[in-house]
Amino acid sequence: MQTAPMHSVGTSLNACIKCNICTSYCPVSEVTDSFPGPKYAAPQSERFRDFGHPHYEDAYGPISRPLAVGQMPDASVDYCSGCRVCNEVCPTGVRIAEINARARARIVAAHGLSLRNRLLGRNELLGRVGSIAPAIANFILHNPVSRKLAAALFGVAEKAPLPRWHHETLNRWLARTRAQRLRSERKVVYFHGCATQYYEPYVGMAAILVLEHLGYEVVVPPQNCCGLPMLSNGEFGAAEDHHRRNVDRLAEYVDAGYPVIGTSTSCTLTLKEEAPELLDLERDPGTRALKLATWDIFEWLRERLDQGQLPSDLRPVNQTDQPFILPYHAPCQLRAHRIGKPALDLLAQIPGLDLRESHARCCGIAGTYGYKTEKYQIAMDVGAELFDYVAAQADESDLSSNGSVSLTACDSETCRWQLEHGTGLPSRHPIELLAAAYGLYDLQARRPAAGN
Amino acid sequence: MLDLLVIGAGLTGLFAAYTAARAGLRVRVIAHGAGATHWHAGTIDLLGYVQNGEEAVANWAQALPELPPAHPYRLLGVETIATALGEFQRLTAAAGLPYERLDPDKDILASSASEKRTSQKEGPGQQVDQVKLGRNGQLISPVGAARPVYLAPTAQQAGTLHDDRPVAIAGLAGMPDFYPELIAENLQKQGRPARSASLPLRQLTDRRDHSPLQLARLLDQPAAQAQFAEMVVDVTAAGERVGLPAVLGLNAHLRFLTKLHEAIASRDPRTSQPDGGREARLAVFEIPTLPPSVPGLRLDAALRTQLQRLGVRVEIGMEVCAFHASGGRIHWVETETGSRPLRHTARNYLLATGGILGGGIWADRRGRVKETVFDLPLTAPQTRSQWLRPLFLDRRGHPIFQGGVPVDNFLRPLDQAGAPVYDNLWAAGAILAHTDPIRERSREGIAITTGYAAANAVASGQ
Questions:
Q1: In chain A, which residue's Cα lies nearest the Cα of B364?
Q2: Three-state secondary structure along B118-154?
Q3: Is B132 a domain residue?
Q4: Residues B309 and B431 in one domain
Q5: What is each CA distance from A443 to A82, A203, A446, B99, in whole angstroms?
Q6: Which are the contacts of B296, defined by CB distance < 8 A and separation ≥ 6?
Q7: Among B221, B251, B280, where does a domain finish?
Q8: Which one of A114, A188, A345, B407 has the largest count of C-beta atoms within 10 Å of its C-beta?
């Protein structure tokens, strides 16, 4: 389309018509004065930041040149949570969130990175270290004294919903169940992401069981962090190292034509778009091939559904006669894929499921944002819209005595943790519901059903 | 399969989707971004000016013959226009955001909306009373000029110029882009009793930079409402009505409006008389602001709520990048994603992507003008020197703004030979040719009536 040439991050600001729609929707500037809003922070400020160098490029790469004092991005840009709601509603295609991410990277390049933000960007390392002895790691991380210490020393919010290490990583489960795994001519690659590997391997198990149920062999090659936490914290150099390593590690499968399927919407978004775009790697052939091979799992399953390839042996998830009310929130990271809400189409196939679609903009957590002491309350205030929505579904069900809400569903892990934190209800990945409806998965215990 | 895919989520697209869904069609809306409703003044302007006309149009129904023969209103006719507006009033009333006519003689005429609806059902034999039906009202514009409007939300009703009560325009000190002195001065020049006043915004918030939306959210809070009401009462003299920037809350502004009215009325001996009788007229009204427009946001929210109730999904962030057609029919459109294009298949397609501002028409610096989704033929001049007339305020308007997609009576886009380009494609709203919505002050009227007519044309073909 005609606006396409504008899509590169640096020049897209020229498409801004100052209509303020982004300001109307920004969930962060609504609850705090620390962030002036997308229009002011991105296209308007950007024009003055690096006059004469619209692409931030020099001989050393995209963001390395020191800026003159007056051109340093205002520190308020750090309060952009990167939820990308602004991009979603912008009628002219300005890459607002990406302009902010690059501005943040410039600040980091000039002033360095706090230890806290460096740590939050290393969830893969944290995951790996903790999973050596998960019980001890959970004790150390989750006791009140260490949460107080972490808040005081590093600025990690005391109440923010940190995950727990699982007793068995996904890789160990795969090794243990190797004999049971399906072998087939039809193969897909599963990109698990760090959270599934170390904290929620059962989400990966559910995904693998569903993919096998469709007759696909699931290949899980060695892979590393997609680099998003580093991109969010302005650490572009490290993010690029991580991204390039993934491109190399997945190349043989991508070249062989296997789809790369992920359950973590933020990891898949990074492979598809964030890393290529922010790091100026769109012309790198390996990056481009991986971008085109990557799928959100429900995006891929929707294709199967549309082509009549989805097994129809779906059963009600609950045993009682009461309809199962399920508030579903499509996270911002998924909406940024611009693929609609494919989980809604799939979950609608499950009999007896009363699916309620949330129209809340954001849960607030935005990756590592809500874990920072100075941003925790902002994240909770942003999430209130979603928490209230979930509560309203429960109220409604009480009135008509249809049963109560016992679960919520959301595709992104940190958003699920925030949802649980904000609503007090457990939250599941929609693939867990689908796996349960196929009888492959125990939704309550979060493990494969007996015999799988 | 979907019966109808609507492309565009402005007033046109959302109202068309509503109309089609109520007719029983399976509908979905996709759009590149949120719609231009966010820029609207929140009123329904039907027809304010005709080409070469000096004066504002007093009665749109009687002014239709002065429009060019291919103008969308001429294609639809008075009855369809009136029915569409009745349906719009029904929608907004159900959403708790009632829109009423700004008729100077509203008290004399019986309840206009219901009368209009019933008169439409009587069939062509029954003549619509065009004198009664078509009367425009006039509201105070943000610069104090007279603005021809047909339907207005409750919050703007008391801003009518057909009201002899003196006006106090109260601004918020420190709020940019709202100038009470300018408005009052212009009203005085027109011989109307008006004065300006200023409310101390600093008493409500420490924030220095205020958008109308931030102020509206602030005024959703009960504590701020109470304080604000006191401030308004303080600057109001007996018998006056108060014009305020349109920031009186987002979520429950009607309740706040009533509270403000009661606070003013209780101080005013004339209106507080028990049978002061017909002083049902509000003592407060809103004047639209620059974007983000709070009245526009309220209207967008009302439309979205009604669509949710009908189970219509509205998917934003989807830009059409390709389509496939053969045998005179469109088979699918594809939207751009983070990776591969996403395909959307439907029996029918409705193009409601807007004009140049909305993104439905793209004009480049070399003078080429293109319809952005299906590359449809346009009536716009393809030479840059012919886009504009030499005088900015030329009464005939500018050719580039009158250019658009030519359509038949069923709102199907036409090719150069005058035949429908595709059998299953319709177009509505600001993208249409032979209308100049901003100049005509017909923006919302074109959106509602053509969206309604196109949706009905689709539904009747099903």
A1: A2
A2: HHHHCCCCCCCCHHHHCECEEEECCCCCEEEECEEEH
A3: no
A4: yes
A5: 31, 10, 5, 48
A6: B37, B38, B39, B40, B41, B42
A7: B280
A8: B407
More confident residue, A7 or A99: A99
CATH number at residue B410: 3.50.50.60
Write the residue in B320, B337, B357 that is nearest to A337 by C-beta. B337
Contact A338 B337 (CB under 8 A): yes
Does residue A216 register a pLDDT over 70?
A: yes
User: Which residues of A are less than 8 Å from B31 in CB distance?
Assistant: 91
Write down the domain spans for chain A.
4-112, 324-448
Residue B317's closest chain A neighbor by CA? Answer: A88
Of B163, B136, B116, nearest to B280 (Cα)? B163
Pair B220, B368 in one domain: no
Tokens of B270: 């004339």
Residues B380 and B307 reside in one and the same domain: yes
A291 chain-B contacts, CB cut-off 8 A: 338-339
pLDDT tens string A357-404: 999 999 999 999 999 999 999 999 999 999 999 999 876 655 554 557
Q: What is the pLDDT of residues A219-269, one digit of tens each?
A: 999 999 999 999 999 999 999 999 999 999 999 999 999 999 999 999 999
Structure tokens at A376: 């925790």
Q: How many CB pairs under 8 A join A and B?
A: 105
Nearest C-alpha of chain A: how many angstroms from B6? 15
Show which of B250, B280, B310 is a domain's final residue. B280
The predicted complex's ipTM stands at 0.90
Binary contact (B337, A17; C-beta < 8 A): no
* Contact state of A2 with B38 under an 8 Å Cβ cutoff: no
Number of domains into which chain B is organized: 2
How far apart are alpha carbons B431 and B304 in whole angstroms?
22
The structural architecture, per CATH, of the domain A4-112 is Orthogonal Bundle (1.10)
